[in-house]
Amino acid sequence: MDIFLSSNDQTDCLKRIWTLCCQCAATVYGSTPPTAVYALRTARLLFMTGAQETGFQWERQRSPRFEGNVGGFGKWQVEPGSIASSLDYLHKRPDVLARATQWLFNDPHAPNNWPDLINMDAILWALRMDDNDKLALLFCRLHYLRVAMPIPDGEEQQAGYYKVYYNTILGAATVPGTLGCYQRFSALLNPAIQRKDTTSC
């Protein structure tokens, strides 16, 4: 769990997460590299998702047992069913797997068969670890990558997109609440990052 000792600590943590969102959005994609505008749109959705799911403060859903395999994992609260679907997707898309591998490990020697070397239980334990953010963020990105509808541009539209395709009708989140979380946390970032005319991360 991230414990913010001061406003500077919180801002530094949020900037680190924002940077990861930008890198993941630009690097992990389907068949066509995203434009700078679409990568920024994706990064904002990823940031919005983490803001709503946990406020970037914990790695394990509060209600189930910590050691259980039910519920959400990581700051983006990815669930085992979504992770399994994303792993299946990676097996079918070696091009996406190669990009995801390089982004996740940042090492040219990292093997692309890592999903076959790590079972689900090991992945879930890794996601419980404090600040293991790249892995959770990757599975969040892959979840959205499997959605056929493109990510919308406006913040309110993105909050609605999150509600439909990530939180779903079964989740407790609302569009106004999600939008409020995003705006509250994004306001703590460098103003240059949040300018409305920003076209890239």
Can you describe this structure?
The protein has 201 residues and is mostly helical. It has one domain (7-60, 70-194). It contains ten helices and no strands. α1 (7-27) crosses α2 (36-54) and α2 (36-54) packs across α8 (155-167).
Concise overview:
The protein is 60% helix and 0% strand.
CA-atom Rg in angstroms: 16 Å
Helix and strand succession? HHHHHHHHHH
What fraction of the residues are assigned to beta strands by DSSP? under 5%
Shape: globular
In which range does the helix fraction lie? 55-70%
Structural class assignment = mainly alpha
Distance between the termini: 26 Å
Give the averaged pLDDT, no decimals. Answer: 90
Tell me the number of structural domains. Answer: 1
Largest sheet: none
Report the strand count.
0
Outline the low-pLDDT stretches: none
Tally of separate helices: 10
Strand and helix map with partners:
Layout: H1 7-27, H2 36-54, H3 80-92, H4 94-105, H5 114-117, H6 120-128, H7 133-145, H8 155-167, H9 175-186, H10 191-194
Notable characteristics:
0% strand; mainly alpha; 201 residues; 60% helix; 10 helices
